[in-house]
Q: What sequence folds into this?
C-alpha cells in the first residue's frame, strides 16, 4: 500500500509472522522513486520541444472524448505549416524550434480565447504539425474565427529578426 503525505510517499507492507497472530509492518520512503516515475511518464506522453501532449496521448484523449461526447460534439483541427522546411534551413534547427514553440503558444492562446480555455486540448503530432481538439457547442463558427486569426500570424512577429525574404508561414 502506498501512503502519501504533503511532501513524501511511503510504501507500506504488512508481513504476518507465522503462527503468532502478529505481523510486522515495513515502511519505505519512495518519494524519489515516485518523482522519477512521474517524470518518465511525462516524458513518454509529451513532446520534449513544445511540452504538448504527444501523438499517443492526444490520440488517447481523442478516443476518450469521442466516447464521452456523442451528444455534445467535438472537433479536431490539424495545423500544418507550409514552408517551414525553408524557415528551418534559414534560421537553423534551434531557431526553427524557437519559432515552433512560440507559434504553438500564440495559436493555442488564440484558440483558448476564442473557444474557452478548458474546451481546447492541444497536441503535437510531430514535426511542424499541431492538433487541437475542441469541446464546444458552436464549433464551426468558433474554429473559423480562430483559424483566420492564426493564419494571419507572421513569423516576423514571433521571432525577430528573420533572414531576408522569410516574411511568413502559411497554415
A:
Amino acid at each position: 500500500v502506498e501512503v502519501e503525505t504533503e511532501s513524501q510517499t511511503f510504501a507500506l507492507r504488512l508481513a504476518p509472522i507465522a503462527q503468532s497472530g502478529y505481523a510486522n509492518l515495513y515502511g519505505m520512503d519512495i518519494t524519489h522513486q515516485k518523482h522519477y516515475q512521474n517524470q518518465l511518464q511525462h516524458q513518454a506522453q509529451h513532446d520534449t520541444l513544445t511540452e504538448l501532449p504527444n501523438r499517443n496521448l492526444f490520440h488517447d484523449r481523442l478516443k476518450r472524448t469521442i466516447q464521452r461526447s456523442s451528444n455534445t460534439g467535438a472537433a479536431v483541427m490539424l495545423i500544418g505549416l507550409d514552408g517551414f522546411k525553408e524557415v528551418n534551413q534559414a534560421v537553423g534547427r534551434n531557431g526553427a524550434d524557437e519559432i515552433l514553440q512560440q507559434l504553438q503558444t500564440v495559436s493555442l492562446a488564440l484558440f483558448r480565447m476564442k473557444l474557452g480555455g478548458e474546451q481546447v486540448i492541444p497536441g503535437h503530432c510531430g514535426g511542424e504539425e499541431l492538433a487541437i481538439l475542441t469541446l464546444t457547442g458552436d464549433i464551426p463558427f468558433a474554429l473559423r474565427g480562430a483559424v483566420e486569426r492564426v493564419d494571419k500570424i507572421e513569423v516576423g512577429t514571433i521571432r525577430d529578426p528573420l533572414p531576408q525574404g522569410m516574411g511568413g508561414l502559411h497554415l
